[in-house]
Design goal:
four-stranded mixed β-sheet; 4 helices; 7 strands; three-stranded antiparallel β-sheet; alpha+beta
């Protein structure tokens, strides 16, 4: 069962244990311009301690690679997008390729090496 949301992202039901995204995320959904090669999208909430460390890690990685953007989305202010993407905890990090497709997803504070590896996959996919 597929539905189109106000965010423009089509989401399938939890048939296989999670949400499956179709389509692309762009500046209209994210509230910021995505990176030319890839984007690190972080869903955060105001009182989330791991979100602060995640912000620092993702910003450092984004600075290492040309054409990569770090975009932080306030989960509480963007509930339609959070619901459409099945975000249940913060921090949640989505790695998008240059076309805005989600290629990796992680929950919790990531390790820098894991972010770099996921970014490599996103750049290769785009």
């Amino acid at each position: 069962m597929s539905t189109r949301t106000r965010t423009g992202v089509r989401v399938r039901g939890r048939e296989s244990g999670g949400h499956e995204e179709h389509g692309r995320l762009g500046s209209a959904q994210l509230g910021a311009e995505p990176g030319e090669r890839a984007s690190l999208v972080q869903f955060s909430s105001a009182f989330c301690q791991p979100c602060r460390a995640t912000r620092r890690i993702l910003a450092e990685v984004a600075e290492l690679v040309d054409g990569v953007a770090h975009i932080e989305v306030d989960a509480e202010r963007n509930l339609a997008l959070v619901r459409a993407l099945g975000i249940e905890k913060t921090p949640t990090v989505l790695v998008l390729d240059g076309a805005g497709r989600i290629v990796r997803r992680g929950v919790g504070m990531p390790r820098k090496a894991d972010v770099i590896a996921a970014l490599g996959a996103a750049v290769d996919a785009g």
